[in-house]
Design goal:
The structure holds 2 protein chains of 2 kinds. By secondary structure, chain A is an all-alpha fold. Chain A has 2 domains: 57 residues; 74 residues, no CATH class. Chain A has 5 helices and no strands. In chain A, helix 1 packs antiparallel against helix 2, helix 3 packs antiparallel against helix 4 and helix 4 runs antiparallel to helix 5. Chain A is flat. The N terminus of chain A is likely disordered. The radius of gyration of chain B is 22 Å and the shape is globular. Chain B contains 20 helices and 2 strands. Helices cover 73% and strands 1% of the residues of chain B. In chain B, strands 1-2 form a two-stranded antiparallel ribbon. Chain B has one domain. In chain B, helix 2 runs parallel beside helix 4, helix 3 runs antiparallel to helix 4 and helix 7 crosses helix 18. By secondary structure, chain B is mainly α. Classes of the chains: A mainly alpha, B mainly alpha.
Chain lengths: 181, 516
């Protein structure tokens, strides 16, 4: 995720990959199926530690057992289907061009911006991190008007802070601007 | 008529200046967000959830009524003026709508869509007003076993019947059910599937799941595949229709409404089937007429019918939503999440427990629908400008408002972290073609189902027969069997029938032929 080379400005249309990688086994799908299977196993194992209550014919274990169990079965079925050539039909959209190779560096940058907001929002306050979030995400997505994005972001963040505080009575974290806002 | 007096009371509640203002804000915000390219109605509602946090329940629901219809209307504007539809329900509208726009008839296409939406939305809402109360009255009497069976039915329908792949439908459902398990167990208060995180004790909030899946997931997915050369936007003036357009539109509107409402009201529909059926019907009926644009060159009937069907089915989905607490589309699932956010338990008792609330909501749906028409016909050129919004700022804005929503909910950075996790899940399910509706349904209905099962078996002291001791439950189980078995038989009998995708391919072929 963090290996995005800084010198690569908006990766130019990466040699338009062959339409959705013509054939072969979808390895990513197997990985995701395994993750789901592991999640199912966790749900089942976690449920074995629960105590059965009194006067409760169902008990806290039944649902996790069924849900986790079915999840494991489904993931195995899916892995087998994938090995036999099952492929996903990825979702389309107005701004989605599926003929392009997915730009993981960009997704990584966006994730980094989102996580930075999570870590800093209580320290710096929403008015600051919200602005940085907007400008950072726009920058990652290829905008090169950083100053304008920062101004817009800070304006959005400060306005939303006041909107929540004044109109809705929800105090968002003021952070370092405590007393100023 | 009791219904009329209740509706009158609802209208009085909804027409106070304050509530009317919320309805107007809701319609404007809903349309604004819904028009944005890449933002469907479900995402529009999810993104706008936090705006209602500080409001009292009635005002919030009134605003939601506006957001709901506004978001739908915005989506159809986008699909007419851009060449690709944003969500599956708009596919059929886009087929003819975009061709009309290209032929210089964008104003008429938008007008027939807007007026058709109004007609269908109003008739559909009236349908809800007359069907939901008797259904709810009947529903209060049903016990836990039947309610359990009905939830099972809606899960099976949504996972197995809708969507292309049953396997993926059930994968989505069980991912959702697993998410619904997280938190303290309802009867013994023991931590379940919490990964040792105490912040998860109250369970994962459905709002965070919805915003993560619909907004963050969609934004990340689109960012990864962002179209390098943006789509061409067709400029448009103020929508209007000539006499001939009216003459050709009114029947498709009514037919579309008649098709859409039942499909929305039965928990099997969504908007895809009725919009498809409406398109096919109009195309067949239009064959006779001479001297008009044919289907494939931008026939106004092909916009009027599917768009009415789309809106009527959106209204229809409110019947199971309000009467039974069952969401049957992604958008209504988010609406349900919003209602749950106010500590109101969705389900058969909703209409009897909160009659004032529900009638104010129904009344404001009518008002919101009228406002939509009044406000949006003049504003259409402005909305069209939104389609040119630069994509980096658009998706940055979506991430900004999604994070704001998750954070404002409880002012916990932990919720924003959860949002990112569900954003990643949202990316994954788009990549692997797993439908989002069964997933969100699993999150909402899973915990409810467990408590109903406990209730049912508690009454029968653990005897499994307690699940089958109500006639309604038995009927519902019979329907489940039919629903699961019928498609298997049907595929033997009629191996090749027209599917929506086949028609879209046909139309694409037509387009190529015209273009070459």
């Amino acid at each position: 995720m963090s290996t995005s080379s800084p010198e690569a400005p908006t990766p130019a249309p990466e040699t338009t990959a062959a339409p959705a990688a013509s054939r072969g086994v979808d390895v990513g799908q197997i990985v995701f199926a395994v993750v789901l299977g592991v999640a199912g196993a966790y749900v089942v194992l976690d449920a074995t530690t629960l105590n059965i209550g009194f006067a409760d014919p169902v008990g806290p274990r039944l649902f996790p057992y069924v849900i986790g169990g079915v999840l494991i079965v489904l993931s195995v079925v899916w892995i087998v289907a994938t090995l036999r050539g099952d492929r996903a039909e990825p979702e389309e959209g107005e701004d989605v061009d599926l003929d392009q190779r997915p730009d993981f560096a960009l997704v990584g940058k966006l994730a980094a911006v989102l996580v930075a907001n999570v870590l800093l929002v209580d320290v710096l306050g929403w008015a600051v991190t919200g602005g940085l979030l907007f400008a950072g995400a726009a920058w990652a997505l290829g905008s090169r008007t950083l100053v304008r994005d920062l101004l817009v972001g800070v304006a959005l963040a400060v306005l939303s802070w006041y909107f929540f505080y004044v109109a809705l009575g929800v105090p968002l974290s003021p952070g370092i601007l405590d007393g100023i806002l | 008529m009791e219904t009329l007096s209740l509706l009158g009371g609802g209208l009085l509640d909804a027409l106070t200046p304050m509530n009317l203002a919320w309805a107007i804000i809701g319609v404007l915000l809903g349309t604004f967000v819904g028009v944005l390219p890449g933002v469907g109605p479900a995402m529009a509602v999810a993104l706008l959830l936090p705006v209602t946090y500080g409001l009292d329940v009635t005002s919030a629901l009134i605003m939601f009524a506006g957001i709901y219809y506004g978001g739908m209307y915005g989506g159809s504007t986008t699909s007419i003026l851009l060449n690709t539809p944003g969500e599956s329900a708009s596919v059929m509208t886009a087929l003819e709508g975009n061709k009309m726009a290209k032929a210089g008839r964008a104003a008429q296409a938008l007008a027939t869509a807007a007026i058709g939406s109004f007609v269908a939305g109003t008739l559909g809402t009236l349908g809800v007003i007359f069907f939901a109360p008797p259904l709810a009255e009947f529903a209060v009497q049903i016990g836990a076993p039947s309610y359990f069976a009905i939830m099972l039915l809606s899960m099976v329908l949504v996972s197995a019947v809708l969507g292309a792949s049953k396997l993926r439908g059930f994968l989505g459902l069980f991912i959702g059910l697993a998410i619904g398990l997280v938190g303290l167990d309802g009867s013994t208060a023991q931590p379940r599937a919490m990964l040792g995180l105490n912040q998860l004790a109250e369970g994962i909030d459905i709002v965070v799941v919805a915003v993560g899946l619909f907004a963050v997931g969609e934004a990340l997915w689109t960012a990864a595949h962002l179209r390098r050369r943006p789509l061409q936007v067709i400029p448009v003036g103020r929508p209007w229709m000539g006499k001939e357009d009216w003459r050709r539109s009114w029947k498709p509107w009514l037919r579309g409404t008649a098709l859409g409402f039942p499909f929305g009201a039965v928990p099997a529909g969504g908007a895809e089937t009725p919009t498809f059926l409406s398109y096919v019907t109009e195309r067949k009926l239009a064959k006779g007429g001479a001297g008009r644009e044919k289907f494939g060159d931008g026939a106004i009937e092909g916009v009027a019918g599917p768009e009415a069907a789309n809106n009527a089915s959106a209204a229809g989905t409110l019947v199971p939503l309000l009467a039974l607490g069952l969401p049957v589309t992604a958008t209504s699932a988010v609406m349900l999440a919003a209602i749950q956010g106010y500590g109101i338990t969705p389900g058969p008792t909703l209409m009897t427990d909160q009659p004032d609330l529900i009638w104010a909501l129904l009344a404001s749906l009518l008002i919101g629908n009228a406002l939509l028409l009044v406000l949006n016909l003049p504003l259409a050129p402005l909305w069209a400008k939104l389609l040119r919004i630069p994509r980096p700022q658009l998706y940055a804005g979506i991430l900004f408002f999604a994070s704001l929503g998750a954070y404002a909910f409880r002012q916990q950075p932990f919720d924003v972290a959860l949002l990112v996790v569900f954003g990643a899940l949202g990316y994954a399910i788009r990549r692997f073609g797993i439908p989002v509706l069964p997933l969100i349904l699993g999150v909402i209905l899973g915990p409810l189902m467990e408590s109903k099962l406990r209730e049912a078996l508690d009454l029968s002291s653990g005897d499994l027969g307690g699940l089958f001791n109500e006639p309604i439950a038995l009927i519902v189980y019979a329907i489940i069997v039919v629903v699961v078995v019928a498609p298997l038989v049907w595929s033997r009998v009629a191996p090749r029938t027209a599917t929506p995708s086949a028609v879209v391919e046909d139309a694409a072929k037509d387009r190529q032929e015209v273009g070459s």
